[in-house]
Amino acid sequence: MAKILVTGGAGFIGSHVCKYLAAHAYEVVVYDNLSTGHREMVRWGAFEHGDVRDDARLRSVLRKHKPDALIHFASSISVGESVQDPGAYYDNNVLGSLRIMQVLAQEGVRPLVASGSAAVYGLPESVPVAETARTAPINPYGRTKLVMEWMLEDFARAHGLPWMVLRYFNAAGADPEGETGESHDPETHLIPNVLKAVRFPKERQVALFGDDYPTADGTCIRDYIHVMDLASAHVLACEHLLQGKASQSVNLGTGHGFSVREIVDAAERVTGRKVPYVIKARRDGDPARLVADPSKARELLGWQTRYSDIETILRTAWAWEQKKVQ
Ligand SMILES: NC(=O)c1ccc[n+]([C@@H]2O[C@H](COP(=O)([O-])OP(=O)(O)OC[C@H]3O[C@@H](n4cnc5c(N)ncnc54)[C@H](O)[C@@H]3O)[C@@H](O)[C@H]2O)c1
Fold first, then answer.
1. Are 277 and 249 in contact, with CB atoms under 8 Å apart?
2. CB 99 within 8 Å of CB 93
3. Chain segment 171-192, per-residue pLDDT in tens
4. What is the β-pairing status of strands 258-259 and 221-222?
5. Could you give the C-alpha distances from 148 to 18, 49, 75, 100, 104, in angstroms and in order?
């Protein structure tokens, strides 16, 4: 049974991947500093408290558990916050990733699957966006993700480190069995904020940023991918690398976009309630359309989505939202 060390496994995507790994006969060890994650979401393996920038701690955990591969989610994730405090983002995301690569180079390289982001594409020239599109991130968050990719290429060349970066578009939804879900504070993602507004209509309206984009209904279009479909891709990526196959970056999305207004409509259908919202000005750096070309993930990894229709995304996210203690 292969053993996987999951950095950031106490977070939204990481906890789903841990559940999926455990269900597919992998042994899981979570390494997390709980800065934004939740101890109660570590339910599918051992827990080691630690920061990815702490190379001594990381080395001792690696020596103790001897994982066959690593999946690296630990990072700061908010575009807006990265613009306000770029130093914190370069520190956590770039230095954190660098420390992992250095410790692996010293302790013995093994496959590293890491969270990338569609933010590396910046304002794409056309959609759907394939991996061959120009990378030109327009904010510190996206830049930290691209620097991580460059470092991986360099460590692969110098030390033979096998790697795969999975560039997620918009991660959404929750575990269909309701054991884990998305709990960010503050929450910046559209779907949980829409559902929170449905749940607490007197206290909050969800802000929709911009209704004058060159799209059919004027709102931005994004590609929403269910977090359990992300989970299966991570396991396929580990298997790909454990079989000695080539290192590369791969998009994870559905290839189908939904506008912000379409998400609001779908949320009203699924919950049977009105979404209280307010239209605000555009945010800087939001592309009108961001939709993946996911052909490479399908062809290279044999990846297929099971949960990423918009109804399932909203239904599972709504079930999770209603379980949250506010
Ligand atoms: N959520 C999305 O839509 C999305 C889209 C693209 C990429 N990503 C990437 O996916 C990854 C996971 O995102 P998420 O939404 O699950 O975020 P999250 O905040 O829920 O999870 C991140 C986890 O990493 C931990 N962590 C952060 N810094 C750490 C450090 N220095 N050392 C140890 N642990 C640390 C946190 O405590 C948390 O448990 C991130 O790398 C993010 O950039 C997310």
1. no
2. no
3. 999 999 999 999 999 999 999 9
4. antiparallel
5. 22, 23, 11, 11, 15
Residue from 89, 141, 168, 307 carrying the catalytic annotation: 141
For the chain, helix, strand, coil in percent to 5 are 40, 20, 40
Ligand 1 near 183 CB (within 6 A): no
Q: Domain residues of the chain, as ranges?
A: 3-171+224-252, 174-222+255-290+307-323
Pull the structure tokens for residue 231: 């989970």
Share of the chain above pLDDT 90, in %: 97
CATH topology of domain 3-171+224-252: Rossmann fold (3.40.50)
217 Cα to the center of ligand 1, angstroms: 32
Closest alpha carbon to 29 in 54, 75, 81, 64: 64
Instruction: Please name the residue that has the structure tokens 């069995």.
Output: 177
Which atom of ligand 1 is found nearest the CA of 182?
Answer: 20
| Cα–Cα distance for residue pair 133/28, rounded to 1 Å | 34
Position 326 pLDDT exceeds 70: no
What's the CATH fold of domain 174-222+255-290+307-323?
UDP-galactose 4-epimerase; domain 1 (3.90.25)
**Is 141 considered catalytic here?**
yes
One-letter amino acid at 312 equals T
